[in-house]
Amino acid sequence: MIAADRIAEENELRLAWHEPDLHHAFDVITRYGLDPDAIVAEVARFSAAAPSWAVGTGGTRFGRFPIGGEPRTTEEKVDDVAVLNALTGANRTISLHVPWDDPADPAALRQHALERGIGFDAMNSNTFQDNPSTTNGGAVSYKFGSLCHTDAAVRQAAIDHNRRVIDLGVKLGSTAITVWLADGTNHPGQGNFRGQFERVADGLRLIHDHMPGDWHLYTEHKPYEPAFYSSVNNDWGSSLLLSQAAGDRAKCLVHLGHHLPNCNIEQVVSRLAMVGRLGGFHFNDSKYGDDDLTVGSITPYQLFLIFLELIEAGGGSLLDAAYMIDESHNVKDPLEDLIQATDNLQHTLALALCVDRDALAEAQARNDPAHCAEILQRAFRTDVRPLVAEARRRNGAALEPLAVYRAVGYRRQKINERGRAAVATGL
Ligand code: RM4
Ligand code: MN
């Protein structure tokens, strides 16, 4: 762990410039007629789960370049997330992926996390790979799909796996399961669109009905990959139909890289929120497809507009949903990338909170697009960095998280402790 007083000590060194910067930012936002303190409080309230599979390096099908000192167990993944959260104050939960995470003693894992101030976010099931623990001991294969499969025995294995993931999540104190399926086809004519969809809907309903009353199920869509002709849950329309078929406590999850090019994602957010079916979010960024790049690094204005819709959906404060970062860190230190992703999320949330929504509604009613644009631009061009730093400081986290991460030499310590060859489970 990184001790709280070490972080306070680092913050102390930066107060000489933080305080005047913050004072200036407060003046600017007060001049907008908005409450800067409320913006800081809202940013401080925000938290995005860290996925357990992203504390190790990712890779492509061409190779993987492990950084060293990666977590060897789920407990060690929790340790890394606890360090991330100590620095950002905004990653208070971890999202597990089963069977990449398959704890032998869930109660002990829960206690381990509790002692480090980390909770368990949505659980993720995996029926996109064959693993003895998900295929009824290797009796079936997901090569031709899981819940969509033509063979009832395969569908049953996939349902059983999802139910086991829920049971494990209950023991850990999680309250949600995210179902992302690789189900689809690679060749025209290979499968029947309607038959596949109806079988997935039936399976999701059975999984949904296994959940305790306070749980939610999130359907996560993706247009292609690994299926390259058709995916069963390919877009937000299909995801909405599937969540409606699954049951009352099923909602849709929007993953930013899972849309066809040029999709108006902020409008998708508005539609799903309008019908009360927006439940989860996976953040990352992309230039070409599902690139899993750092949040806000490629299309920051789109992210700003998305946050604006999430605030609209929440009636002025951020919509209550399961927020998670879903990236693949191929060349950066995974923790450094997660620090930057979280900072970008906090930053963009603050920018969106700088939009004068009353003035915007008024300008929209007057049909004044130029003034609407001025309102958005004024917010987007505001320097909110001191507000974000202040939100972190109020959470006991670091004014400059990446600098502190480097100053304490966390990666070096972990390479010594866990070994240069330690590689985390995941993709
Ligand atoms: C998928 C999807 C899921 C994630 C896996 C690893 O593309 O984003 O959310 O669980 O990747
Ligand atoms: Mn995802």
Structural notes for this entry:
This protein is an alpha/beta fold. Helix content is 48%, strand content 11%. A hairpin with a 2-residue loop joins β2 (59-60) and β3 (63-64). It is globular, with a radius of gyration of 22 Å. The site of beta-L-rhamnopyranose has 9 residues, from loops.
TL;DR of this structure?
This protein is α/β, with parallel strands linked by helices and 427 residues long. The protein is built from 15 helices and 14 strands.
Which terms summarize this structure?
427 residues, alpha/beta, 7-stranded parallel sheet, 3-stranded parallel sheet, 15 helices, 14 strands, globular, binds beta-L-rhamnopyranose, binds manganese (II) ion
Count every helix, treating DSSP H or I runs of 4 or more residues as helices.
15
**Which sequence of SSEs, written as H and E, runs from N to C?**
HHEEEHEEHEEHEEHEEHEHEHEHHHHHH
Oligomerization state of this entry?
single chain
Radius of gyration: 22 Å
Amino-to-carboxy terminus distance: 26 Å
